[in-house]
Each structure stands twice: as structure tokens, then as C-alpha cells.
């Protein structure tokens, strides 16, 4: 049994962590830290988890000898502060994405964990999205042959000017870049097109990043100007193509605990695989979707803590993605200088 605590109790914890831990029998959530100002107007939400102790004193988590893992789920400005505090108190740490402000800050956190003999890891839970797991299954089947091109989309429609900043890179592209890094590793070459329609040089409401791996091109696209849904993944190989629309987002419950539906997707949502088989015959297959389950990340992390198994998200992967994000920001800012 592994007892854990959360630092933060916002949307991410309520919808993408706690609901998926229901089926992870090896892990028990003992405590959740919230700032007092966050608790005052939201006490009713604490009643949703009566077996969890809520506290506004971070030392109540740091000094609890039963707690072995602390999940940091706050604004990125405090990720390093809480991660370092947890490590100094002998706790393993899972940090929400983006892991840190930059790669240098991330290196300092990883170095401290190594010094303490503890595990710290980024919560790249989108590796366990059903649509991404389905994509990996198709690639691994070999039916596409050698991969020539992958397009990955994470879009929505909200054509209004929000405040300047790089939330699309650090909020959305951080997931899709990590997904592709987990398959292909470090790219040979990267081409950036990061722009803001409203705040040129100061924002990123449109992201288009091309990653090149030998003869394979991977395109990451995120935009707030997509009214009609585009496929989540479009893949072309020298034997065929695969198209998969998004598996959708977790249905949130603002009035009580979110309950995850682990049922398989309906056939109408399955991806389509077009390929030429070994006999030269053209085939069309509907590919059953894998089920989204972020609890899989926790199960893998549990094994890392208990048995020393490799972490599901490696340090070098986190650092590589952080560097891609930093370079994307630098590209966006250069647009203003050129203008």
C-alpha cells in the first residue's frame, strides 16, 4: 500500500487524478493540502472525499511519515517550490505538467531527487489517452509500414483575445510533444511556427511544430481557431494510412465527485486503417479504441517506487520536451522583433 498526498485541489486533481485512482488498489490518498484562501469559498467540495484529510498547513503533509508520495498540482510558478520541499522531507514526487518553468529548473529538481535517492517524475498522463494508445497499437502492428508522416492535433474554437502568454505551448503542446517523444525520441531537426493573432511576439494562439526523424515527419498542431473538428491523428506510411478522431475529454461533474466511464468507445468512434496487405490487396479495418486510463501512470509509478522499475516518464524525456517548449517561445518572440 502506498499512501499519497496532493498539493492542490483544482480542476486537474478533481477530474484527472482522483477519479482514476478509484481503481488503483495499491494507492490510498491520505491528505490534500489547500491554501486557506482557496478553502473558504469551496468547503463543500471537500465533503466529496470524506476519507481524505484536508489541511491548509503544508507541514502536515511534509511531516507525515506515512505519506511516501506527494503529487504537486499547483500553478507552475510553485511547482519547483513544492517539489523541492517534498524531496527535502524524504518524499517521492509527481509534478503536474509543465514540470518546471524551464529545463534548468527541471535539472535542479532531478539532481536533488538523485541526491536524496528519491523519485520525482512529470505527470505526462496523456500517454494513456485512448486515442494515443490506439495510435501506438496501429504503428506497432506494422500494417502502415515505414512511417512517413504523422499529424497530431489538439485544437479548440475560442477566437477571442485572452491575456498574452504561452499557455498553448505549455498547456497543450506539452502533451502532444511528449507523446511523440515517447515514440520516436529526440528529433533530428525541428521547425517552429508559433504565432499569436492577437499578441504577436507575446503569445501562442497558434502552434505548428515539425519534428523530423530521418525520413519521418511529425507535425504537432494546436490552435484556438478550429471550428470544425480535425482528426486527432492522421498517419501515413509506405503501406497505408490511419485516421483517428479524438476520444473526447473527461466529463466533469461540478456538483460532486467525477466518475470515469471506462467503457470501450462505440464502433462509430473507432479509427480507420487503410492499408495494402502482404498479398497486394487493399484493406479497410475499423480499429477498436483503447480505453483512456490515467491510473496506469500511477500503477507504473508505484512499481518504480516499490520495485525500482524504470519510471514511465524519464528525466531526459522531460528535459527534451522542456527545451522544445523554450525554443518555441523564443521563435514566437522573434516574430515581434522581425515585425
List the keywords:
single chain; 339 residues; alpha/beta; Rossmann fold; Dihydrodipicolinate Reductase, domain 2; 2 domains; eight-stranded mixed β-sheet; six-stranded parallel β-sheet; 9 helices; 14 strands; 33% helix; 25% strand; globular; nucleotide binding; Oxidoreductase; Gfo/Idh/MocA_oxidoreduct
Structural account:
There is one protein chain. This protein folds into two domains: 2-123, 3-Layer(aba) Sandwich (Rossmann fold); 126-292, Dihydrodipicolinate Reductase, domain 2 (2-Layer Sandwich). It has nine helices and 14 strands. It has helices at residues 11-21, 36-40, 59-62, 79-88, 103-116, 130-141, 167-184, 295-307, 315-338; strands at residues 2-7, 27-33, 53-55, 67-72, 92-96, 120-123, 147-155, 189-195, 206-213, 216-223, 233-237, 240-244, 271-276, 282-287. The strands form two sheets. An eight-stranded mixed β-sheet has the order 8-9-10-7-11-12-13-14. A six-stranded parallel β-sheet has the order 3-2-1-4-5-6, with helices on both faces. The protein is globular and about 65 Å long. The termini are far apart.
Query: Span between N and C termini?
Result: 57 Å
Q: What is the string of helix and strand elements?
A: EHEHEHEHEHEHEHEEEEEEEHH
Which shape, going by the Cα principal axes?
Answer: globular
Global mean pLDDT = 95
What oligomeric assembly is this protein in?
Answer: single chain
Structural class based on helices, strands and sheet pairing:
alpha/beta
CATH C-level class of the largest domain is Alpha Beta
Measured as a percent range, the helix fraction is 25-40%
Counted beta strands: 14
Number of domain modules: 2
Put simply, the count of helices is 9
CATH superfamily of the largest domain: Dihydrodipicolinate Reductase, domain 2
Looking at the overall shape, the CATH architecture of the largest domain is 2-Layer Sandwich
According to CATH, what is the topology of the largest domain? Dihydrodipicolinate Reductase, domain 2
What radius of gyration results from the CA coordinates?
21 Å
Amino acid at each position: 500500500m502506498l499512501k499519497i498526498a496532493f498539493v492542490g485541489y483544482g480542476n486537474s486533481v478533481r477530474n484527472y487524478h482522483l477519479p482514476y485512482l478509484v481503481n488503483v488498489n495499491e494507492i490510498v490518498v491520505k491528505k490534500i493540502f489547500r491554501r486557506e484562501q482557496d478553502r473558504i469559498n469551496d468547503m463543500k467540495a471537500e465533503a466529496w472525499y470524506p476519507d481524505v484529510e484536508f489541511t491548509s498547513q503544508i507541514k502536515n503533509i511534509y511531516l507525515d511519515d506515512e505519506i511516501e508520495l506527494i503529487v504537486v498540482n499547483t500553478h507552475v510558478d510553485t511547482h519547483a517550490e513544492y517539489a523541492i520541499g517534498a524531496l527535502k522531507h524524504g518524499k517521492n514526487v509527481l509534478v503536474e505538467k509543465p514540470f518546471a518553468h524551464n529545463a534548468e529548473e527541471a535539472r535542479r529538481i532531478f539532481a536533488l531527487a538523485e541526491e536524496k535517492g528519491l523519485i520525482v517524475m512529470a505527470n505526462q498522463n496523456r500517454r494513456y489517452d485512448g486515442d494515443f494508445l490506439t495510435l501506438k497499437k496501429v504503428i506497432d502492428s506494422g500494417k502502415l509500414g515505414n512511417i512517413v508522416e504523422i499529424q497530431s492535433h489538439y485544437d479548440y474554437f475560442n477566437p477571442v483575445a485572452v491575456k498574452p502568454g504561452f499557455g498553448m505551448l505549455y498547456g497543450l503542446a506539452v502533451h502532444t510533444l511528449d507523446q511523440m517523444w515517447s515514440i520516436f525520441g529526440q528529433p533530428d531537426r525541428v521547425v517552429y511556427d508559433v504565432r499569436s493573432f492577437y499578441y504577436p511576439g507575446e503569445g501562442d494562439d497558434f502552434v505548428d511544430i515539425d519534428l523530423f526523424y530521418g525520413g519521418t515527419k511529425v507535425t504537432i498542431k494546436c490552435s484556438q481557431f478550429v471550428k470544425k473538428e480535425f482528426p486527432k491523428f492522421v498517419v501515413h506510411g509506405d503501406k497505408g494510412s490511419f485516421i483517428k478522431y479524438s476520444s473526447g475529454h473527461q466529463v466533469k461533474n461540478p456538483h460532486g465527485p467525477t466518475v470515469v466511464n471506462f467503457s470501450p468507445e462505440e464502433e462509430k468512434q473507432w479509427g480507420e486503417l487503410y492499408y495494402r496487405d502482404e498479398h497486394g490487396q487493399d484493406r479497410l479495418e475499423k480499429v477498436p479504441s483503447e480505453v483512456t486510463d490515467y491510473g496506469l501512470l500511477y500503477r507504473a509509478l508505484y512499481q518504480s517506487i516499490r520495485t525500482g522499475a524504470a519510471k514511465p516518464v524519464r528525466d531526459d524525456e522531460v528535459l527534451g520536451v522542456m527545451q522544445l517548449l523554450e525554443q518555441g517561445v523564443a521563435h514566437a518572440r522573434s516574430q515581434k522583433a522581425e515585425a
